[in-house]
Amino acid sequence: MSTPINPEFEPGFDDLWRANEDYAKSFKYSELTGRAARGLAIVTCMDSRINPLSVVGMKSGDAKILRNAGARVTQDVLRTLVLATYLLGVDRILVMPHTDCRMAQEDEEVIHAMIEEKHGVDTRSLEFNTVVDQRAALSQDLARIRAFPLIPKNVIVSGGIYNVTTGKIEPIES
Q1: Is residue 90 a part of any domain in this protein?
Q2: Which residues partner with 67 through β-bridges?
Q3: Which of 42, 51, 107, 145 places its Cα 20 to 30 Å from the Cα of 57?
Q4: pLDDT tens digits for 84-102?
Q5: How many domains does the chain have?
Q6: Strand pairing of 63-68 and 92-96?
Q7: Is residue 154 part of a domain?
């Protein structure tokens, strides 16, 4: 094991701290504000195959990115969208789940059972928000945003499913 670059840091993260040192040397975003320069918030999955800004031709500072397992519109996502629309310049919301999503491959009970069987941990106190039909779930999530009384009515809401194989987004009408 290598010697930590700073003994105050948790071991196992040295590669990240070293990479950050390099990143900071050429840091070029200090002029950005906390506002979404292009007025967009993207709700997408935590899947590491998705680079939300690149997918829609944007760069750092252009949009707010909200990520969770399955790109579901949860209560926390709604809370964050309220803040983004009133305080951070968001006037468009794109909900973007993706193909080959783990949360669309099994139902809740199977996921809980798999974790318990493999790791001995009972996760049934959590709701993972798995989906059987991504299109139906996306339509439901879009409707949830549009109906949420604290989201301004002038905010434009749309959705599409990102294809992790082709890079294309298939717009979904709702």
Answers
A1: yes
A2: 44
A3: 145
A4: 999 999 999 999 999 999 9
A5: 1
A6: unpaired
A7: yes
Residue 50 neighbours by CB under 8 Å, 6+ apart: 44, 96, 98, 162, 164
115 burial (CB, 10 Å; 0-12 / 13-18 / 19+) is: middle
Q: What is the CATH number of the domain that holds 118?
A: 3.40.1050.10
Three-state DSSP class for 8? coil
Listed residue (83, 86, 88) closest to 62, CA to CA: 88
Q: Which domain holds residue 98?
A: 33-171
Instruction: Classify residue 98 by its DSSP letter.
Output: B
Q: What is the pLDDT of residue 55?
A: 97
- Residue 11: the pLDDT is 77
Name beta bridge partners: 161. Answer: 170
Task: Please indicate, yes or no, if residue 19 is contained in any of the structural domains.
Answer: no
Please tell me the distance from the alpha carbon of residue 171 to that of residue 79, in angstroms, as a whole number.
25
The answer to whether position 58 is within a domain reads yes
> Which two tokens mark 166?
């082709």
Q: Look at residues 148, 133, 157, 128 and name the one whose alpha carbon lies nearest to residue 70.
A: 128
Q: How far apart are CA 11 and CA 91, in angstroms?
A: 42
